[in-house]
Amino acid sequence: MDRIARAYGKRAEIAIMPRHLHVNVCESDGSGCTTAISSPYGGGISFDINTRLSSLSWDIADDHISLSEAARRLDSITEAAGKPSWLVIPAVALANASFCRLFGGDVIAMAVVFVATLAGYYVKTELLGRGIDLRVTVFVCAFISAVLGASDQLFGLGSTPSTALGTSVLYLVPGIPFLNAFSDTLYRHYICSLSRFADAIVLTACLSAGLCAGMALMGVGMF
Questions:
Q1: Which segments of the chain does DSSP mark as H helices, in order?
Q2: How far apart are alpha carbons 42 and 46 in whole angstroms?
Q3: Across 57-62, average pLDDT
């Protein structure tokens, strides 16, 4: 936003909260300020959209495209929100299966984690695409993945069932909100940092509740 604002001779300040965005745009000399408060869609994080928005900002700064053209391209990018490529779901499942291997899981555990992640992430994209609350989505997906991940132990399929169960929900860990909260603390955006951290804690609690509910249903682990 700062790069775009400077390209159009403006100065922008933004405060990011879990429920609201505070945007203040002024002339370069600090006069003629306009403030807007918006409630953004609380969906998942899309690296594809982030990358395309960053590319748009550089095109505005380097190629000096018009404001109307920039707005048109912005609309085309935001319209793609919630529509991930069909390659993303199996790629996430494969990545989570790789995490299972890093934590000592055997081939059977990796296969179980792949299926559990495939099902859970597919449900996640569908629920977020329908506008379901992210917290509810995380709980439901953690429950589904935990139920499928517990099949390794329930049916005695492999030698590392606990690893399969534990890593089946890793794709839901809110690592980015935690990292953003830490980054905001370093840059002294303390209110924003606390907001992000609280949001990450809530998502972690939803993940844990879904995992525990799945384990309780399947009668494995601490239950």
A1: 2-7, 47-63, 67-78, 88-102, 107-129, 134-149, 151-154, 161-167, 175-186, 190-218
A2: 12
A3: 94
Please say whether the dihedral angle defined by the alpha carbons of residues 37, 41, 47 and 49, taken in this order, is positive or negative.
negative
Chain centroid to Cα 216, Å, comes to 27
Using CA atoms, how far residue 90 sits from 8, 122, 144, in Å, is: 41, 9, 16
Give me the amino acid identity at 172: L
Task: Give me the DSSP letters along 65-118.
Answer: --HHHHHHHHHHHHTTTT---TTHHHHHHHHHHHHHHHTT--HHHHHHHHHHHH
Instruction: Specify which residues 14 forms β-bridges with.
Output: 23
Single out the residue of 67, 60, 72 nearest to residue 7, CA to CA: 60
pLDDT reported for residue 155? 85
The residue written with tokens 């629920």 in the block is 127
Using an 8 Å Cβ cutoff, are 200 and 193 in contact? no
The residue type of 29 is D
Q: Is the pLDDT of residue 134 over 70?
A: yes
